[in-house]
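Session log. Operator J.P. requested a structure for one protein chain; no other inputs attached. Running the standard single-chain path with token output.
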Amino acid sequence: MRSATGWERTQVAQSDPECLFCKIVVGEVPAEIVREGERTVAFRDINPQAPTHVLVIPREHHPDVAAAARAGTGLVDELAREAQEVARGEGIGSDYRLVFNTGTGAGQTVFHVHAHLLGGRGMEWPPG
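Structure written below.
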């Protein structure tokens, strides 16, 4: 729901009261929000790995990108679209990396699907 000052923070239908990112969505935990949409929230990573490092998350809770894709609601597409809008707003245009870590072995530490938008410098390959 949109208010005069932006998106109101409200409980979402599918959330986990113990999840850090769900708490950010409802405003219980502060974050530097850079963009909000009806289904998404984008905020700066607290441990940036590039000049621009923004996390794009859905308002609803899914533990990882595979679970979000299985839900079949177009959420992964929405995350990618929102990441593109954030990149444009951050002035990095179409030169960015979008990363989903899935599982502890891949470095996922918060089990709420999130896309890492990285940019503002050259990206080497292969990554770390």
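Operator note: The longest helix spans residues 75-89.
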